[in-house]
Specification:
Layout: H1 5-24, H2 29-33, H3 44-63, H4 77-96, E1 107-109, E2 112-114, H5 116-140, H6 150-156
Antiparallel strand pairs: 1-2
Helix pairs in contact: 1-4, 1-5, 3-4, 3-5
Amino acid sequence: MNKSILTGLFEHNNWANLQIIQACSSLSEEQLDAEPQTITKGSIRSTLQHLINSQEDYLSQLMGIESCFNWQTPPDFDELRQAATDTGEGLIALTRDESSNSLQTKFEKDGYSVEPWLVLVQAINHATEHREQIKSMLSNLGITPPRIDGWAYGRITNALVQLSS
């Protein structure tokens, strides 16, 4: 059975989020909270939390339910990883059956009428932008960031296979 292109995109997004969380999980408290020396705003810790909070918000919007994350203090890496997994798998499930009644057909947010496809685009773009910011901050700390591009994901999932010559 072939999966949809949209599902593949969200499977990559979920994998990449978990890879960047893993790469940051061994950082010291000082490294997690350091303000970047670039135009990027926010620490690695705050960017990771924002990334996952936003993903949960996108999933909630698409399902027409209230957002349930309300971290009073920054989550630890186990909580962050679990939240990323739950929300990532939730988005993947929605993309597997776009005709499902669980996906809002159109909704209102902040005074706008919003099509679901636009929220899906925003979820991917938003995550990509913040993962790249975190990778830049890791590089500035002298840490080689993980390779999380589509080609790397294609190799590990056998979606990119070298043909024998």
